[in-house]
């Protein structure tokens, strides 16, 4: 037993326990007081022996890693004392890995990768260099707090059996994240028994490099090649809907997907040279099979071929790609470049850590603070020493110095329960952005909400084309999606010529021509966004029937930070998202003032505040509306009878005629086909008198729902996090059958004068008292919208003038493949963040971005 000469963390307990330890002759006697706290990991227990819960310290860090022998959480040297003080757990396993560069001997014999292979079995560390060039020397010991007594391991003969078993289980525990991996595939694919002896017909078939199509149905998507005779057929029967699969060989005789280690030889029999078609893969990035149209995009966005200068220090730390997680890294880099997120999570770091739950790996605020500190502290982005650079020059070799931080804990937390983000597949960065904002909203109840900077109000103006009457509503949004009208391309003639050449090449089985990228003005995207759009299934309250309607959208408020997504993705014939190849001249400065909403204009007449008819089930009719008069709607009975003669239920035919606005049996027939599977298809059409404005649901003590149901607490939390009073949020949910979107509309249209003082009080309670947040908004022109009442959502309205400060770019054919990187403007210069690599940008490709981030310009 050894006692450290210097106790880190400020421990000064050197009294009776120290003297007892010196007198102890048996380790068992020393551990007796702590035996009840030492546990053996059971099935389902997660052992975090690779990374600290509060930092990115690992066994390779200077201070090593301390694993609690009760909770199995890992802590760096700076955080283990906090866990001891909070929980009273005294026994920790200290893990330390010493990394040494292998000596290059003349014999060139293989040097063992580990000297102590038993200590860190299945240890996952985030190394950016080639592990074969290094050897590891591992060290493990038990440490007893608060006096830091050390017991070297292994010490099997002297330790109690329980302690020995617990230590061995911790050292050999698998990664806590590996249990997620099987979600991406069901079973391991085996090598086909026919791979070695496959007989291929010498029938002279040679597969051309392009123009492939099914020999039976002319299908050009999802094609499969028969390796025996060279026949090409479509794979509809085998398609799993994902559009991307690791399975590319299927054996009919074995009736399963298989591996073919001789696939290159088998394809070359039909003239396919895999060496020229081989894909490049780096850090989990998938590069598409069609290199010519995408090579330029990859090179331009990543600024390949340029000598980019690496940058280090606070704010210049990269995020490691864990395998198709670049979409998450890019979004997080942009979020933590925004002061509000920095103040919320990094400015309150100590408070968040001190009040974290017993399992900080499951706390969103803790993991966001951990990542934010890792990115902004500069602790994990230090430039190489001059001696290291000289040594590299002498050896004529270059080693990657930028390692970055791993978002593994945060990814595991935010993706839990999500069918897509919890997988190992590539995802849409925009969808993740919205997902993260929703999580921030849910976890910001009663405190400063950094996502307020993105929130804005949209005014939707819907007009009935027949009566010309209008309705204005408002909704909350966090991002505007701009269409990209190909027809507005400045090189339209060039595009048409390319399409003609491409079609001719496909028909004649010739190589495809060099692709042409559409160039679309940003003003055309804004124009398409502001143009009226048809409202499907519009029900006019003026006609009390379905009619044609159009909608236009404007900004009821402007956010402090504006997020703009370019709608580059569409769906192909195989229902797989595909990206349109286009370049848009996105401006550095943007003025949207002309898109400010104006509200109801003079001469406009509003649509009546009536709801569409509600068809009540048979068992509730007469219960909740016993005294309600039933309105007899105007229905073209002749059209209904004409449909009934075709064999449809009469009541269904009457509903079809009514909901299509008495526009004839043909329209009603289409409605029947679309709704005939609904359970209330044949129920009679009933219009309760609650539709009368004098019997508005806001005046009803029971609200709009027949049953006084309690709304879900999660829905209440989302509304309160937007700044609405709790009581008003509950009432809104009850009046809209717990529908969040309708509840927001209800709040906007039912301001409660009697609750204004309560609302102000509730909003005041949500203001933070911590000095780090007291002046969070003092640097901008942001204010609450002057025309908003106190019950509205928190919005930081201000001028609609913006400056571009970041954008996320995507490379690849669809959101389900490819790679994401981001460019961020810091200190007046553009910086490219490509996973763990952070460099000064020489030529930021602003015209090829996918998501753009603007910050509001000061009014001065």
UniProtKB/TrEMBL annotation:
Enzyme class: hydrolase
SUPFAM superfamilies listed in its UniProt record: Cysteine proteinases, RING/U-box, UBA-like
Compositional bias of kind Polar residues: 769-785
Residues the entry annotates as binding Zn(2+): 214, 217, 234
Pfam families: UBA (PF00627), UCH (PF00443), zf-UBP_var (PF17807)
Entry annotation: catalytic residues: 326, 819
Compositional bias ranges of the Basic and acidic residues kind: 786-796
GO biological process: autophagy; protein deubiquitination; proteolysis
Transmembrane segments: none
Residues of the USP domain: 317-857
UBA domain sequence ranges: 634-675, 710-750
SMART domains (UniProt xref): UBA (SM00165)
Reaction equation(s) it catalyzes: Thiol-dependent hydrolysis of ester, thioester, amide, peptide and isopeptide bonds formed by the C-terminal Gly of ubiquitin (a 76-residue protein attached to proteins as an intracellular targeting signal)
Origin superkingdom: Eukaryota
Keywords from the UniProt entry: Autophagy, Hydrolase, Metal-binding, Protease, Repeat, Thiol protease, Ubl conjugation pathway, Zinc, Zinc-finger
Composition bias, Acidic residues: 754-768
Any one Gene Ontology molecular-function term assigned to this protein's record: zinc ion binding
Disordered: region residues: 685-716, 754-796
EC number: 3.4.19.12
Stretches assigned to the UBP-type domain: 190-302
Family the entry assigns: Belongs to the peptidase C19 family.
Annotated protein name in UniProt: Ubiquitin carboxyl-terminal hydrolase
């Amino acid at each position: 037993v050894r006692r450290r000469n210097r106790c880190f963390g400020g421990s000064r307990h050197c009294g009776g326990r120290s003297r007892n330890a010196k007198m102890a002759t048996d380790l068992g006697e020393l551990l007796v007081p702590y035996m009840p706290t030492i546990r053996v990991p059971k099935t389902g227990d997660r052992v975090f022996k690779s990374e600290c819960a509060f930092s990115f310290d690992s066994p390779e860090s200077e201070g090593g890693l301390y694993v609690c022998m009760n909770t199995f959480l890992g802590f760096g040297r700076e955080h283990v004392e906090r866990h001891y003080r909070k929980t009273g757990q005294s026994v920790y396993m200290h893990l330390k890995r010493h990394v040494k560069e292998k000596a290059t001997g003349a014999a060139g014999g293989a040097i063992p990768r580990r000297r102590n292979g038993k200590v860190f079995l299945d240890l996952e560390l985030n190394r950016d260099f080639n592990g074969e060039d290094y050897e590891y020397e591992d060290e493990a010991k038990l440490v007893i707090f608060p006096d830091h007594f050390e017991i070297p391991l292994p010490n099997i003969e002297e330790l109690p059996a329980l302690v020995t078993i617990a230590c061995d289980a911790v050292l050999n525990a698998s990664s806590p994240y590996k249990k997620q991996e099987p979600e991406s595939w069901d079973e391991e694919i085996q090598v086909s028994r026919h791979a070695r002896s496959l007989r291929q017909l010498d029938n002279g078939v040679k597969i051309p490099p392009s123009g492939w199509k099914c020999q039976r149905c002319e299908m050009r998507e999802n094609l499969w090649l028969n390796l025996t005779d060279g026949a090409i057929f479509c794979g509809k029967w085998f398609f799993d809907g994902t559009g991307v699969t690791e399975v590319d060989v299927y054996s009919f005789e074995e009736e399963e997907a298989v591996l073919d280690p001789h696939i290159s030889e088998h394809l070359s029999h039909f003239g396919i040279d895999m060496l020229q078609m081989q894909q490049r893969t780096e850090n989990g990035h998938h590069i598409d099979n069609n290199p010519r149209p995408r090579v330029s995009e990859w090179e331009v966005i990543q600024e390949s071929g340029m000598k980019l200068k690496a940058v280090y220090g606070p704010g210049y730390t990269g995020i490691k790609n864990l395998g198709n997680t670049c979409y998450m890294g890019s979004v997080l880099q942009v979020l933590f470049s925004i002061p509000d997120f920095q103040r919320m999570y990094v400015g309150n770091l100590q408070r968040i850590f001190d009040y974290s739950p017993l399992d900080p790996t499951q706390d969103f605020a803790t993991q966001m603070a951990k990542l934010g500190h890792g990115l902004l502290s500069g602790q994990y982005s230090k430039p190489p020493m001059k001696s290291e650079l000289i040594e590299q020059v002498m050896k004529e070799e270059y080693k990657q110095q930028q390692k970055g931080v791993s978002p593994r804990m945060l990814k595991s937390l935010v993706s839990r329960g999500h069918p897509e983000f919890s997988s190992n597949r590539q995802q849409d960065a925009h969808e993740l952005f919205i997902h993260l904002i929703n999580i921030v909203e849910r976890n910001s109840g009663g405190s400063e909400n950094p996502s307020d900077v993105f929130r804005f109000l949209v005014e939707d103006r819907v007009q009935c084309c027949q009566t010309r009457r209008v309705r204005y509503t408002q909704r909350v949004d966090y991002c505007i999606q701009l269409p990209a009208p190909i027809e507005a391309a400045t090189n339209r003639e060039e595009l048409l010529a390319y399409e003609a050449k491409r079609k001719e090449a496909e028909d004649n089985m010739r190589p495809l021509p060099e692709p042409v990228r559409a160039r679309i003005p940003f003003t055309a995207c804004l124009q398409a966004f502001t143009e009226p759009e048809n409202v499907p299934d519009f029900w006019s309250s003026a006609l009390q029937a379905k009619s044609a309607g159009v909608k236009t959208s404007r900004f009821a408020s402007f956010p402090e930070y504006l997020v703009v997504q370019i709608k580059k993705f569409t769906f192909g014939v195989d229902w797989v998202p595909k990206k349109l190849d286009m370049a848009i001249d996105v401006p550095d400065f943007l003025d949207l003032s002309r898109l400010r909403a104006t509200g109801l204009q003079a001469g406009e007449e509003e649509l009546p505040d009536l709801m569409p008819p509600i068809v009540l089930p048979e068992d509730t009719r007469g219960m909740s509306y016993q005294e309600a008069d039933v309105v007899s709607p105007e229905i073209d009975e002749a059209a209904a009878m004409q449909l009934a003669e075709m064999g449809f239920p009469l009541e269904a035919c009457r509903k079809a005629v009514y909901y299509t606005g008495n526009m004839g049996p043909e329209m009603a027939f289409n409605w029947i086909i679309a709704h005939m599977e609904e359970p209330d298809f044949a129920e009679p059409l009933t219009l309760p008198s609650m539709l009368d404005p004098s019997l508005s649901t806001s005046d009803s003590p029971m609200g709009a729902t027949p049953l006084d149901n309690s709304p879900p607490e999660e829905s209440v939390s989302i509304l309160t996090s937007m700044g609405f009073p709790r009581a008003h949020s509950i009432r809104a949910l009850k009046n809209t059958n717990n529908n969040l979107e309708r509840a927001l509309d209800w709040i906007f249209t039912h301001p409660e004068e009697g609750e204004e003082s309560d609302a102000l009080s509730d909003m005041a309670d949500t203001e933070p008292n911590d000095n780090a947040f007291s002046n969070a908004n003092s640097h901008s022109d942001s204010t609450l919208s002057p025309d908003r009442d106190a019950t509205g959502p928190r919005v930081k309205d201000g001028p609609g003038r913006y400056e571009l400060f970041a954008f996320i770019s995507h490379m690849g054919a669809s959101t389900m493949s490819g790679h994401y990187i981001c460019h961020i403007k810091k200190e007046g210069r553009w910086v490219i963040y490509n996973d763990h690599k952070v460099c000064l940008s020489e030529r930021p490709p602003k015209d090829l971005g996918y998501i753009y981030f603007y910050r509001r310009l000061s009014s001065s």
